[in-house]
Amino acid sequence: MRLNLKTLTLGAVATAALASCSGGSQDSASEGNAALNNIMSRTSVREYTAQPVGADTVEILLKAAMAAPTAANARPWKFVVVRNEAMRAELGDSLPNAGDKLTKSAFVVVVCGDSETFFKPQPDFWVQDCSAATENLLLAANAVGLGAVWCGIYPDMNRVYATRQVLGLSPELIPLCVVPVGHPASAQEPKDKWNPDNVIYKD
Fold first, then answer.
1. Among the four 24, 32, 57, 94, which has the fewest Cβ within 10 Å?
2. pTM of the model
């Protein structure tokens, strides 16, 4: 786990707060602390080693992705796992700023919205649902010692069409993003993005 002083400080505060809320349960506090540390230590990883990632680990990441919240339990997602190197290279050539991140990773996951399963009263909610699933995927990768980065596709329709063509996706699938995943080539320091000016309190 890649931690810094700020993360550890947050973890200490979280431990005390969780212990208080749970009646002093150290197990609950420890679990909550680990979850917060994972969130705070996650960072975008763009360079990877050649070490492969096993199928069991890939499935863990996908299970985490599918544990995300979803409007009306519609689950409007499909996940395309691409290990094929030639296909990853072609996809990287088709997507600006994705490039060698896709070829150097162990595999990529293309997160898609399935229009046949959208929440019909509010079909655009698929973007929120699939975004939540993507964040879960990123956090799960960090939790198991892998690195990943979110590379946007939708709403750039040129990228959407290019991704569909490379992967041979059917028209009802809308690629939201592609996430290369692999073993980090080096340690990455997470950015401290906390800014109290971005918080509005209404007490």
1. 24
2. 0.87
Judge contact between 101 and 44, C-beta under 8 A. Answer: no
* CB-based contacts of 73, cutoff 8 Å, min separation 6: none
Dump pLDDT digits (tens) for 16-53.
444 444 455 677 788 889 999 999 999 999 999 999 99
Q: Residue 191 in contact with residue 42, Cβ under 8 Å? A: no
User: Distance (Å, rounded) from C-alpha 186 to C-alpha 31?
Assistant: 27
**Distance, CA of 144 to CA of 131 (rounded, Å):** 20
Angle at the Cα of 11 from the Cα atoms of 64 and 149, rounded to 5 degrees:
40
Closest C-alpha among 71, 80, 70, 94 to residue 156: 94
